[in-house]
């Protein structure tokens, strides 16, 4: 892995995109991986239209797309004890449409450093780094 395009959700309502991008950049820097961050302008199944200009300029060796699943509220009786949401990540080679790896994490906050750390560990174990 030399260049990673990190593709974020359209807004920061549930996920701190700048924080996630910074965490990926610092976690991958020791491996010499350059990270470029992009963001969808709208919700869509096929993101290739939004990604095309960045891919043409940056020529990523890999692409990591983050998406969010539905949130859940945990309660005990009538007391809400916490909310969470599913963070999904998919790793692709360059501009391929075939996923190489899938990542899932149940998050309770906008900042997800543990998810990033788990992704980096799996990338190391998988021989990507």
What gap, in angstroms, lies between the N and C termini? Answer: 6 Å
**Largest β-sheet summary:** 5 strands, mixed
Quickly give the structural class: alpha/beta
Write down how many β-strands occur, each being a DSSP E stretch of 2 or more residues: 5
Based on CA atoms alone, the radius of gyration comes out at 15 Å
Helix-strand sequence: EHEHEEEH
Strand order of the largest sheet: 2-1-3-4-5
Strand percentage? 35-45%
Mean pLDDT: 86
Shape: globular
Name the poorly predicted regions.
none
* SS field, number of helical segments: 3
Proportion of residues in helical segments: 25-40%
Report on the structure:
There is one protein chain. The N and C termini lie close together (6 Å). The protein is globular, with a radius of gyration of 15 Å. It has helices spanning 17-28, 48-58, 113-125; strands at 3-8, 34-39, 62-76, 79-93, 99-107. It is of the alpha/beta class and 129 residues long. A hairpin with a 2-residue loop joins strand 3 and strand 4 (79-93). The protein contains 3 helices and 5 strands, in the order βαβαβββα. The chain has a 5-stranded mixed beta sheet with strand order 2-1-3-4-5, sandwiched between helices.
